[in-house]
Design a protein that fits this description.
single chain; alpha/beta
Length: 212
C-alpha cells in the first residue's frame, strides 16, 4: 500500500466524524505526507490521475487565467460550479510561480527559503485555495518542497495537489529530494467512503463524487 493509500486507510479506520455545509466527513487533523521521488512514482503508477488535464490546469493557473470557459476548452470541467470567473482562486496566486521558479533557477541559494503564498485571508473568493503555502529549499544540492494545506479532500483534491507539486518540481533545475505535505485537515466525504474502500480493495475504476 503506497503512502497516499495509507492516509486513506487511516481516515477510514481512525477518522472522526464531522458535519459541514458540504455534508458529513471523516477526517484527521495534522497529518504529514513525506514523499521521495520513488514514493511519487509508486503513487502515480498505482493510482489513476488525470495527468494531462492537471498539467493543462497548472499551465492555465500559472498564466493567471480566471475564465472558467478556458478550463472547459482544455477539457477541465470541475470548475464549472464556481461560475464564469475564478475569483481570488488558484490563478490569482500561481501566476506568481513562473518568476519565482526563474529566480530559484537563477540563484540556487541553499541559504534562502523561496516561498509562494496562496489564499490570503479577507478577500472575496468563490473557491479559496486549499493549498495555502509552498516552500522551495535547496539542501546539499537537492530540492526540498514543503507545502501546507488548510483543507484536503483526500479523494479528489489531494492526488491533484500532489501531481501539481511534482510538476512544479520538474520546472526547477535541481534534483528532487522530497515533497512534504502538512495536512491540517484531510478528509473523505461520507458519499465517497464506500468508493474509497473499493479503491483500497483493488478496484482501480472507482469514480468519486465532487462535493461543493
Amino acid at each position: 500500500m503506497n503512502k497516499y493509500y495509507k492516509v486513506l486507510d487511516r481516515i477510514i479506520h481512525s477518522g472522526r466524524v464531522q458535519c459541514n455545509k458540504k455534508g458529513e466527513i471523516k477526517y484527521l487533523l495534522n497529518e504529514q505526507l513525506e514523499l521521495t521521488p520513488s514514493d511519487l512514482l509508486d503513487i502515480f503508477e498505482t493510482h489513476g490521475i488525470a495527468r494531462k488535464k492537471l498539467k493543462n490546469e497548472l499551465q492555465l493557473f500559472m498564466q493567471g487565467e480566471r475564465q472558467v470557459e478556458k478550463y472547459r476548452e482544455a477539457g477541465i470541467a470541475w470548475w464549472d460550479y464556481c461560475g464564469a470567473i475564478l475569483v481570488n482562486s488558484y490563478p490569482t496566486y500561481l501566476e506568481r510561480l513562473p518568476p519565482l521558479i526563474e529566480k530559484i533557477n537563477r540563484e540556487k541559494r541553499s541559504s534562502k527559503n523561496y516561498v509562494l503564498f496562496l489564499g490570503e485571508t479577507g478577500a472575496e473568493s468563490n473557491q479559496a485555495p486549499c493549498l495555502s503555502l509552498v516552500q522551495f529549499q535547496i539542501d546539499e544540492g537537492e530540492l526540498v518542497i514543503s507545502a501546507f494545506q488548510r483543507s484536503s479532500d483526500a479523494n479528489l483534491g489531494l492526488p491533484a495537489d500532489l501531481y501539481h507539486l511534482y510538476l512544479m518540481s520538474r520546472q526547477i533545475k535541481i534534483p528532487l529530494k522530497s515533497i512534504t505535505l502538512n495536512l491540517a485537515n484531510v478528509h473523505i466525504y461520507k458519499n465517497n467512503i464506500e468508493h474509497t474502500k473499493e479503491l483500497l480493495g483493488g478496484n482501480e475504476n472507482v469514480r468519486f463524487e465532487l462535493n461543493v
